[in-house]
Each structure stands twice: as structure tokens, then as C-alpha cells.
Amino acid sequence: MIAEFKLIERIAALQGADDGVRIGIGDDAAVLAITPGHELAVTTDTLVAGVHFPLDAAPADIGYKAVAVNVSDLAAMGATPRFATLALTLPSIDMGFVEPLLRGIAEAMKRDSLTLVGGDTTRGPFSITITAMGEVAQGTALTRSGAHAGDSVYVSGTLGDAAAALAMRGHWPALDEAGKLAKSRLEQRLAKPHPRVALGHALRGVASACIDISDGLAQDLAHVARLSEAAIVVDVSLLPLSRALQTVVADREQQWPFAFGGDDYELAFCAPPQSAAVIERLATELKLPLTCIGTVGPGQGVHLLDHDGRVRDVPRGYEHFRT
Amino acid sequence: MIAEFKLIERIAALQGADDGVRIGIGDDAAVLAITPGHELAVTTDTLVAGVHFPLDAAPADIGYKAVAVNVSDLAAMGATPRFATLALTLPSIDMGFVEPLLRGIAEAMKRDSLTLVGGDTTRGPFSITITAMGEVAQGTALTRSGAHAGDSVYVSGTLGDAAAALAMRGHWPALDEAGKLAKSRLEQRLAKPHPRVALGHALRGVASACIDISDGLAQDLAHVARLSEAAIVVDVSLLPLSRALQTVVADREQQWPFAFGGDDYELAFCAPPQSAAVIERLATELKLPLTCIGTVGPGQGVHLLDHDGRVRDVPRGYEHFRT
User: Is the pTM of this model over 0.95?
Assistant: First the structure.
């Protein structure tokens, strides 16, 4: 532990009290009370400099995102975020870097009601590992494995914004005022994703399968297809694209491939056709687009078609910052 | 994720089934059932190459120890190990390194009945972060804060073996047969510590405070003193030293400072004098020395005395591989 800086305690000091924390930071381990009748959802993700984010990324954004990627996994299970631990490895203590990093972590934790309950700070090449824990009522967790032939396939929000911002980093063309606004919106989507916690929670009992699509739509839907023993057919003409993306990239043929670029902290989910009205109401309640992009059928794998029924290949080439 | 190697799944394949794992590896998050009436103990520790272990340490030992350091934290709370997540960052996939690393992790998890429920593998400078979760019956967790003036202070096992092995790494003198056996015993204590899970569990309701002393006896007892608002006085002549340490280091004045060197995955605990008989019985049952090394008194801090009552300074200089 880099004891003299008490970095973990600094974040904890930014938080409110949590009744579920019976013993918090400062003992050998935290002791947590889980709500009776609930199960614990647990996920862990590491962010490494130069791999998951550019070396010159703003430290507040790195901290924020390290939390958000984990929260998005909890959201995909329908779980309510509760607790997190933080393992932070730093080559040295540069407070100009560490302070905004911790602020970013604290901001994202507060946004989704996570309480930091422990951690470890070590010297070494910069990386952040967060383990996030959530609660979900017994037996109600969403999985990747429940999709059935005949189900519709939906995605939340819009796709490709983060991938476009990443692809254009350092290569932005000259932009007018509308273009500058769009650029800022795309960059925000890359830096500060909003995990879909409320959606995941509401989809329990509605969706037959659910997954976070941050690794890329095709790759993640392939997990659902494999684990559900079914095929997923996506109509690329239905992919929801933001106005910002359409402003910056004018040609539709160049727009939709970004939807496969990953780093979208949206949920993809399947549901039987009779749930369409419930899902439409959910979209209104949550003020979040929920778009049907395809169907589940017999067979295997993920297949892309355009609106003419022509088979399209999964676009590639957006892998630079992910392993 | 380094998807093509499925490292996390490789460890999982070495494990048996666990009823508490409702959804295991392969979904966005694991979903775990906690035994009713129990609380969840959670701890996380990172091991970084060149910081927590020598760069040439055997990969199986690194993997084993990454688990053991976390289990020791659970033991100090009186918790029973249940689940763990693993975040593994590797510069490349060298199976000659990775295979024994994973075997070491799996061995330690099996030893203490931990089930791997998730993880993340990323490319980057080598480090391992493990988050371990255990269960403890509601309200029975041991803490660092309950010691009272008049309590006795105990440690489990023997102290200083790992510190001696580390200090002598590459500087071992010529040894006879007994010396070689002692060296091997000390090296084993450094590489493969045995966390005191059964002891921690048995100390619930007996110990007033408990802590894992892997950061070094003085530093860790200082946490107990601070959080219990008391002073701890240790008689250095009572420190339990192994026959192996005494074989390799002949002079008592050079022996006892190793007991402050850290890396001992033993427990220190406090208990009222009337618990002495219970503790003696525990030592017999667990076949584990439990040695009274001092007392809790009014005041603050940790104070070392020798058997003549002379004040001794806390030895320093064993910090090379820890931050």
C-alpha cells in the first residue's frame, strides 16, 4: 500500500454512509450486508493505459470510465449497483494526475450509487481494476442464454458514437458550428458513458436475454447466439445512429459500420414479440430509445443484412484500444 | 479480453461445482447466493512484478501467493472463503509462464475452497489483482478495533521465516545438511504461505481484535492500537521463531528483527486473560502455535521491550519488495 497518500480513503471521504457496509475501509476486509432475498452480482474489469484508453486521455475520464464499464456489466444482469473495490497501480504519485483520476472515479460511483468498500494501491505501471458488486432479487438476473427463435432483438440508445470519436481522434475535419457540437457530443459518449442500470432493472421478467455491448455489437450478440443456441439476424438499416454521428459522417454507408466499433455502453436484449408494447412503454418512461434491430431464429451465429436482404460483412478495424 | 486464450475459463475448469454460484463465468457478471444469516467479507490485493515478488520468482509461486494474500485478509475477519475474481494483465501469452501461473492460482484457490467466478485478462505490464469474497455469520466478524487494556496479544505460527528467506536470497552462506533443510523450509514459507482460515474462524467470539500481519508485525499491530485506542507492548524475547530461522541465523540478537520483516501470513489477535485456556486448547486442536507476545495497555502506539524491560526500536530494512 502507498500508505502515505491514503488514496482509497480519499475517495471514500467523497461518499455518503451506506447501511449495507457493516465494516468499511480500514480493516483487513470489508463486511457487507446483502438484502435478504437477493443474490450478489459480481464483475471485474481492468483498464490499462495505452490499451483501453489513449495515453493522453484526461485522468478524470479514465477514472470515470473504469467504474462505468463495470456498472454496465451489472446493468446487463438487471442488478442494482451497491459496492465496489478499487485496485490502483501507479508508477508515482503525481497529484495533478491522481486528484482528477479519483474525482472521476468518485463521480461515476456516485452517479450509479456504488459505495467504495476497499482497495489496494500499489506502485507499478498504471492500471485500474475495479470489482463491482450489485444485488438482484433471487432468480431474476438476466443472462445471455435465454433467447428463443422468434424473439426480437433490441438495442438501447444509439450506436457507434464512441467508435466514431475514437476513429476521428486527431483526424477531425474542419467543422462548422453544428459539426463542432456533434464532435463534442461524440467525444462525451466516448469519455463518459451512461450505463443503462434502470433499463437492465426494468427488463427483468421482460427480456429473454441481455448483454452489455461494449466489446462490439457483433461480438457480443455472438455470445447471446452461442449461449442461447440460436441465430441472430440484424438488419443494419435499423441500427439507431445519433444525429451527432450522422452530422459528422454524412454517408450512410460510412455511418453504420461505426455501430460495430464497440465502446457503446448500451444493452442489447431479446424479447418475445408480445413484449413489444411493454418495451415501447419502457422507452418512453426511461426517455431512452429502444430499437428493434433484428430477430432470433434457428441456427447459429450473427448475420447482418441490409434492408434489401443483402448479406453484409461485420465491419472490422476498430480494435486499436481494446484487446 | 485476450479471448483466444480463455485463461479465466482454464482455471475454472480445474474447479468443482459450487452450489452458491447461480451464474458463473461467461456472462456479464457472476450471480452468487450468500448463505442466509451471513454477511459478505470482501478484500482485494494486487501483486506487481518487481514490487511484491522478485522478477525471477517461479510463476506457480506468484499465482499461489496472489490468492493466499487475499485469503489471509478473509481469515483475519473470521470469514470463510467462498468466491474470487481474477484480473490478470500480461504483456504476452507465454504458456511456459502462464500455465504454471494458473496452476498456482488454482492450487491456492482449491486449498482454501475459493471458487473463481469471473475475471478479466488484459494486455499490459504483468500484474495480478484478486478480489476474494468470504462469508461470516452476521455480526461475528473480527475487527482491528476491539482490543482493550488488559488483553493479551497473541500471534499464530512463527514469525520472520519469509523475511529471512527474502533477505538471504542470493546471499545464502555455505550450509550443512541441516542448514539446507532449514533454507528450504524458509523459502517455502516465503513462496507458499498458509493463511490461517481455521484459526480466524475459531477466534470469533474469543478474540477482541484480529489482524493479518503480512505488512509487518509492528505496522499491523499499530493499526490495532490506533483503531482500538490503546497501546500495545510487545516483549521481543517472546516472539516465536522457527527452528529453521534459528538454524540459519545463529545469534538471537540477529534473529528476532526478522519477525518484523513482514510477509508472514499469520494472524495477530488480542483476547482477555480469561480466554487463555480456550486459546491454548485451540492451539492444540489446530496444531498451530499461538504465542502470547505482549499486552494491551492504556496509551497509544506499539512499544517493544526485551525481557529485561529495555525499550527496543522497531527493526527496519526489509521493505524491498513491498510498497
Answer: no
